[in-house]
Fold this protein.
Amino acid sequence: MSLLSKVKEAWVGLRAGRVTLAYPAAPAPAPERFRGRPIFDAAKCIGCAGCANNCPAREILVYDVCQEIRILKYLGRRCTYCGRCADVCPENAITMSREFETATPRIGDLQQRIELFMSTCQRCGRCFDPPSKLDELKLRGYRFDDLENERWIFRSSAYLEGQPVVDDVPLEMD
């Protein structure tokens, strides 16, 4: 009886066919929503540290070397590839790769390091984003929204029209 049951079991197994993939020889493509290791884009990163604050494995470290340099370091040792860092990034500077073979004998192969130049607050000393191109123009004196310039225009027009001026504002004449 036991020999017959073994033959039946072998027949069922042979009739089912192959159920595994020939992985090393022909790997299947990763699924569409697959999350591999995170990739950081230094050109888009603003250094807000939202990724480090929301990483459940605490694999992203943020520290300020001096008052103008902020370093983001991804360690990659315990990362579970949850994608939380990419979800909270306001500038989409973090994307999840489609790599699934990340095994390596050297831990340094997984690490990523970004050095960002940051401006600092004169009051508290904390870092913030460097000024944009428009802000740089404003800082150089090309200010279009300056209240002093607007008062000067009001003062000049009032002077030219002969209206009396009090506290840099022309008075309305009835």
User: Anything to note?
Assistant: The chain has two domains: 31-130, 131-174. The chain is about 25% helix and 20% strand.
